Automatic annotation (TrEMBL):
<dbReference type="Pfam" id="PF00005">
    <property type="entry name" value="ABC_tran"/>
</dbReference>
<dbReference type="InterPro" id="IPR005286">
    <property type="entry name" value="Cell_div_FtsE"/>
</dbReference>
<keyword id="KW-0547">Nucleotide-binding</keyword>
<dbReference type="GO" id="GO:0005524">
    <property type="term" value="F:ATP binding"/>
</dbReference>
<comment type="similarity">
    <text>Belongs to the ABC transporter superfamily.</text>
</comment>
<dbReference type="GO" id="GO:0005886">
    <property type="term" value="C:plasma membrane"/>
</dbReference>
<keyword id="KW-1003">Cell membrane</keyword>
<keyword id="KW-0472">Membrane</keyword>
<dbReference type="GO" id="GO:0051301">
    <property type="term" value="P:cell division"/>
</dbReference>
<comment type="function">
    <text>Part of the ABC transporter FtsEX involved in cellular division. Important for assembly or stability of the septal ring.</text>
</comment>
<dbReference type="InterPro" id="IPR017871">
    <property type="entry name" value="ABC_transporter-like_CS"/>
</dbReference>
<dbReference type="GO" id="GO:0016887">
    <property type="term" value="F:ATP hydrolysis activity"/>
</dbReference>
<keyword id="KW-0131">Cell cycle</keyword>
<keyword id="KW-0067">ATP-binding</keyword>
<keyword id="KW-0132">Cell division</keyword>
<comment type="subunit">
    <text>Homodimer. Forms a membrane-associated complex with FtsX.</text>
</comment>
<dbReference type="InterPro" id="IPR003593">
    <property type="entry name" value="AAA+_ATPase"/>
</dbReference>
């Protein structure tokens, strides 16, 4: 589904923060991405979400060369990818419900066809009571759960999540991991960037470890 060949990335004139990164994300796979702070995890996710272009090397996503996409093609491919940003990026003028429903609205679906689905997912992540409030009044952990629900709702082919359990307690983290596992069972490839060793130890998955910009895969 995704292939990186000798990918390098530098920001502006700075040093290379990713170096010779070669790996793939197979269909229906589950992997953790880990490594010390500043190692390049978020940068790698931004490349995968097509919001950064590599300085060198080749990235192929869904069989398309990422360097050759026009803005419309990039937008179309992004609809097939769910992402949970570290800083959530909820839209403050939309309710929690509307934020979560947004990917389905963008796909052109009628509200009547997804209302129950969105409510059910919000209940599952413990936001049933917070459905109609605006994000600025949510706590950090509530925002994180809303961001996860928004990334999952359209059952994307790939789900990318940057520290998705960073703001919740261990029992809620386990519950959220179950949600990712359910999505994985239904066919989505999952990549979770995390420092949370306890979370990784709960599930025997591939580990992609970045250190000083270099990536090693442990199958
Ligand atoms: N927009 C930017 N401009 C310049 N340098 C950047 C930019 N974003 C990140 N960097 C640098 O790139 C390197 C990798 O950063 P990145 O955020 O990818 O690491 P990370 O592994 O996600 O870290 P953390 O675990 O702390 O979130 C760091 O040295 C960081 O300072």
């Amino acid at each position: 589904m995704v292939r990186f060949e000798n990918v390098g990335l530098r920001y502006g004139m700075g040093p290379e923060v990713l170096r010779d990164v070669t790996f793939g994300i197979p269909a229906r796979s589950f992997q953790f991405l880990t490594g010390p702070s500043g190692a390049g995890k978020t940068t790698l996710l931004r490349l995968l979400f097509l919001s950064l272009r590599p300085t060198r090397g080749l990235i192929s996503i869904f069989g398309r060369d990422a360097a050759k996409l026009d803005p419309n093609e990039t937008a179309a491919l992004r609809q097939r990818i769910g992402i949970v940003f570290q800083d959530f990026r909820l839209l403050d003028h939309l309710s929690t419900y509307e934020n979560v429903a947004l990917p389905l609205r963008v796909q052109g679906r009628e509200e009547a066809s997804y209302r129950a689905e969105v409510s059910e997912l919000l209940q599952w992540v413990g936001l049933g009571e917070r459905m109609h409030v605006l994000p600025p009044v949510l706590s950090g952990g509530e925002k994180q759960r809303a961001a996860i629900a928004r990334a999952l709702i359209s059952r994307p082919e790939i789900l990318l999540a940057d520290e998705p359990t960073g703001n919740v307690d261990p029992s809620l983290a386990r519950r959220l991991l179950r949600l990712f596992l359910e999505l994985h069972k239904s066919g989505t490839s999952i990549l979770i960037a995390t420092h949370d060793i306890a979370l990784m130890d709960q599930f025997d998955a591939r580990r992609l470890v970045i250190n000083q910009g270099r990536l090693t895969v442990y199958d």
